[in-house]
């Protein structure tokens, strides 16, 4: 008994120092396990390689993909095949996709042109019986200017119109004025002295502004038609149309100038014809009065001739006495 206890004590003395530093696995706490795991993780971070091995998460069926946990959905990004292409190819590809997605311009142009055709304005009704503009002149200038010039009529410069640049114009100079309001001095009346001044852009724009907004007597339908034609012209400027041609504006205003002064010549000839007719009538009356006077003179002369022949039949002495007294005439005749 004593021997067994002594051997047990010796074993305890032999094992005792090791039991102090080494604990059995079953007696480890969860905190110690976490500490060891953390220490192993830090060691792995310390000894890891700088360049990681190429590894795609799709090839690893066991481990979860990092893209699913930390990154958003990348399905709309290009695939791995497109990543190997050059950036210039990517730019060309993106530009091709943009050109494919953008709609063509032809439907827009066709729709706008069809809208213009649907809202076509009757220009013949706007022109009416204008003496300065005809329908054959339509292809020479834009429609707004064509319709606005049709609202002008000939007029003559008066003393009140001699203001501004018309100060030195002579009275009766032919020009144009608005047919709706008649114009006022310096407003609505235009007296260009040549075709060049008539064809200036300032003159045409002034006429357009007067008919389109300033004239208070212009009918609303004419004013709205002019404004609509201006809107259509702004849209039509981007379309490849064949009118107006180069130099056609000058041709148009040459025709207007010719018609304006032809009317002046016609009015002058009519006035001259009326003057000549009145003068011929007066001359006829004068001739008739002269004829009547001549007849009276002839009648008087005939009476005088008859008296002279009667007196010529008497003697000279008796004829001399007859002038002395009228009472002695019967006695003298009886004596003869």
UniProtKB/TrEMBL annotation:
Bias-annotated ranges (Polar residues): 69-90, 327-336
UniProt superkingdom: Eukaryota
Compositionally biased residues, Low complexity: 1-14, 91-114, 270-281
Region of interest (Disordered), residue spans: 1-115, 267-336
Name this protein carries in UniProt: Uncharacterized protein
């Amino acid at each position: 008994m004593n021997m067994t206890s002594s051997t047990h004590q010796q074993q305890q003395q032999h094992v005792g120092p090791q039991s102090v530093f080494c604990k059995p696995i079953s007696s480890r706490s969860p905190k110690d396990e976490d500490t060891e795991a953390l220490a192993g993780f830090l060691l792995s971070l310390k000894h890891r390689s700088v360049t990681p091995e190429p590894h795609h998460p799709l090839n690893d069926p066991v481990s979860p993909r990092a893209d699913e946990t930390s990154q958003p959905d990348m399905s709309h990004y290009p695939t791995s095949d497109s990543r190997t292409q050059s950036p210039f190819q990517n730019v060309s590809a993106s530009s091709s996709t943009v050109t494919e997605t953008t709609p063509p311009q032809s439907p827009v142009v066709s729709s706008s042109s069809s809208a213009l055709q649907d809202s076509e304005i009757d220009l013949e009704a706007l022109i009416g019986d204008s003496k300065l503009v005809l329908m054959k002149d339509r292809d020479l200038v834009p429609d707004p200017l064509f319709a606005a010039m049709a609202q002008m009529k000939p007029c003559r410069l008066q003393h009140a119109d001699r203001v501004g640049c018309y100060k030195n114009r002579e009275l009766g100079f032919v020009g144009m004025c608005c047919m709706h309001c008649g114009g006022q001095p310096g407003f609505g009346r235009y007296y260009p002295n040549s075709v060049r001044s008539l064809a200036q852009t300032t003159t045409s724009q002034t006429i357009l502004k007067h008919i389109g907004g300033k004239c208070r007597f212009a009918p609303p339908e004419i004013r709205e038609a002019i404004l609509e034609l201006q809107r259509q012209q702004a849209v039509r400027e981007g379309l490849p149309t064949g009118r107006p041609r180069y130099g056609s504006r000058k041709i148009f205003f040459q025709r207007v100038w010719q018609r304006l002064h032809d009317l002046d010549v016609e009015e002058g000839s009519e006035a001259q014809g009326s003057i000549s007719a009145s003068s011929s009538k007066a001359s006829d009356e004068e001739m008739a009065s002269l004829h009547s006077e001549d007849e009276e003179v002839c009648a008087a002369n005939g009476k005088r001739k008859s008296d002279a022949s009667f007196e010529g039949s008497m003697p000279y002495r008796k004829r001399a006495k007859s002038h002395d007294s009228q009472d002695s005439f019967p006695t003298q005749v009886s004596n003869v």
